[in-house]
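FYI - complex with acetoacetyl-coenzyme A, inputs then prediction.
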Amino acid sequence: MKFRKVGVIGAGQMGNGIAHVCALAGYEVALYDVSRERIEAGLATIDGNMARQVSSERITVEQRDKALELLGLAESMENFEDADIVIESATESEEVKRKIFAELCPHLREDALIATNTSSISITRLAASTDRPERFMGVHFMNPVPVMELVELVRGIATDDATFDAMQDFASSLGKKIANAEDFPAFIVNRILLPMINEAVYTLYEGVGSVESIDKAMKLGANHPMGPLQLADFIGLDTCLSIMQVLYDGLADSKYRPCPLLVKYVEAGWLGRKAQRGFYDYRGETPVPTR
Ligand code: CAA
């Protein structure tokens, strides 16, 4: 099974990154979101990120131009009629994703595949809400997608071998390395990463350290490229909270309880970088800790 056209639903930080790497790999890409403004913002981000890659000589101007030609805007889901695969990368909410699949399925070719970039929700359960659980699976990219090497591949209980093989070939064609994960809450990366971030928020909540001390400690003491609170802002605090909630509900273990301070930040709308405020305030020249 070889793909030609890829549909991407969700033009946010993950969706535009996925569209970016697909177009660079030579696939025709149709990017969709709930409004034209959001899609255009996603396309503008891709433009900016490709310009960075050109200036650091990671890609050539010709590669960039060819990729931008392959990138298009999907006015509606009807645009996915001739897609070989559609990758859903919307908000980390099961309700939102189910609604999207219900709207999407009637427009797809019978043999088209659906992938979800969910970072934690059960692939088997999401697959069951579609008309093609055997041609459905999890393809979990890492942020920033153009930079991070890994893709987690997650089969649902019904995913067939042809779908899995096609997804492996597809991920490799994007230049990504693959880690296979079983379909349990948050898979591998987030099962390990998010409790670490949540623990960093508890460390702040309990006054063990300030935002600056916690991030400095983990950057310089554990050689992490970003401190855990900086990383939480980068991922999005709403996404971090959703993943902790999936772990807490799905594994029924109190060790996964989301830190009340994380809940408070999300309730305030301080969702991290995308909202210009989270554990840091990004509205000035340099980020300033908010606690
Ligand atoms: N698109 C294209 N290129 C990008 C980019 C983007 N969105 N973001 C960064 N880059 C490039 C930069 O242009 C730069 O390229 P060169 O080396 O060619 O100059 C390179 O990446 C490094 O960037 P910077 O110099 O700006 O900054 P940095 O050295 O601090 O690296 C980082 C930035 C790669 C994000 C690094 O801080 C890092 O690895 N952070 C941790 C990221 C991480 O853990 N991601 C996983 C999050 S978990 C997840 O995604 C799963 C989930 O479901 C929640």
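Residues 49, 52-53, 56, 58, 119, 142-144, 146-148, 189-190, 193, 225-226, 231, 235, 239 surround acetoacetyl-coenzyme A (CB under 6 Å). Residues 11 and 42 are 5 Å apart (CA to CA).
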